[in-house]
Specification:
Structural class: alpha+beta
Order of helices and strands: EHEEEEEEEHEHEEHHEHEHEHEEHEE
CATH topology of the largest domain: Rossmann fold
Helix content: 25-40%
Strand order of the largest sheet: 8-7-6-15-3-17
CATH class of the largest domain: Alpha Beta
Number of helices: 9
CATH superfamily of the largest domain: von Willebrand factor, type A domain
């Protein structure tokens, strides 16, 4: 979920009160600033690259620009989301009646953080002609194997984006949309990735974008680093599975590595069908072994890029590796 500052408009009475206060103390009227909840997903691995499970929220320390944050909720994999109380204890996030959710806003929905909202972006450009059928099969197998709590959307692209299947828990519906995909012409990867991120940003809770592409982009008007910045700020990890060999397309490979590293995802270069299946299995394992926390940022005058750090207590924590997005820009918007 985005972490964006929103200025709350002042009514006539508030403006009048502000002017009165200004006349008394020569201070200017101030606007209240609302900071949305930040959703942060990350994985923890040991020195051998194995996932570290079972850690408690008390073992983590989340910092923004060095400022310790107070965690609001905590979840591991697709286990129930826990609310962290003031005394450090936890309880299941209470269920809000539908009418209460509408009043309170999306941040309080108890089901918003159950499972992952997975957006699959499938390259159907002419670069994919040879491996089209194999790629479609690999994506279908991935969709079938997702956790029952996960939702999935399937988008396809060549020059334009096609929303083949909207976000759903119905695996058959998602695969049916996938099977309707047809091969196109030029590839506008970064244009369509930006549109996919925009859709994902509207959905509360945890989400990821998985790009399956040959690599080259010959039709986009958007720069890849602009797309990366949006994903970074919105807290949406990008995973890329490329069917090209990294050594043969250094430019696309470098962009994919930068996109994924800066957003907390991973890049895979899988030329064969078997390697593609293995890449999808690795992503599914990654999602099932990640931690997700939420928090409302503490007061921070920095309106630019805020650095996020995840620290783990104890001697063992010093040997662990945390993979997470490096930060975000709270004032950035589409």
């Amino acid at each position: 979920m985005t972490s964006r500052r929103k200025f709350v408009g002042m009514g006539a009475a508030a403006v009048a009160a502000g002017r009165h206060a200004a006349a008394q103390d020569n201070s200017r009227p101030t606007f209240r600033v609302k900071v949305d909840m930040v959703v942060l997903g990350f994985t923890v691995t040991d020195s051998k690259g194995k996932y570290v499970n079972g850690l408690k929220p008390s073992e983590f320390r989340i910092l923004e620009d060095g400022i310790v944050q107070k965690l609001n909720t905590f979840a591991e994999g697709n286990k129930p989301v826990m609310q962290i109380l003031d005394d450090g204890s936890m309880r299941p996030l209470p269920v809000q009646p539908v009418q209460e959710e509408a009043k309170a806003g999306p941040d309080v929905r108890s089901d918003a953080f159950v499972g992952t909202n997975v957006f699959v972006l499938f390259d159907t450009s002419n670069y994919m002609y040879r491996g089209f059928v194999y790629a479609s099969d690999a994506i279908a197998d991935f969709v079938r194997g997702l956790d029952r709590a996960d939702s999935v959307a399937v988008y396809t692209f060549s020059r334009n984006l096609t929303r083949a299947a909207d976000l759903t828990k119905d695996r058959n519906e998602a695969i049916l949309g996938l099977r309707k995909a047809v091969a196109g012409d030029d590839a506008a990867l970064y244009n369509t990735l930006l549109l996919t991120l925009r859709d994902a940003a509207k959905v509360p809770g945890r989400k990821v974008v998985i790009v399956f592409s040959n690599g080259p982009d010959n039709a986009s008007m958007v720069a890849p680093d602009d797309v990366r910045a949006v994903a970074e700020d919105e807290g949406i990890p990008i995973y890329v599975i490329s069917t090209a060999e990294a050594s043969k397309d250094a430019i696309s490979s470098g962009v994919f590595k930068r996109l994924t590293t800066r957003t907390g995802g991973k890049a895979y270069f899988a030329k064969t069908w078997q390697k593609q299946v293995e890449a999808f299995e690795s992503i599914r394992e990654d999602l099932g072994n990640s931690y997700t926390v939420t928090y409302y940022p503490q007061q921070n005058p920095n309106e630019g890029f805020r650095k996020i750090a995840v620290e783990i207590s104890g001697d063992a924590g010093k040997k662990y590796r945390v993979r997470a997005r490096p930060g975000y820009r709270p004032s950035r918007g589409f």
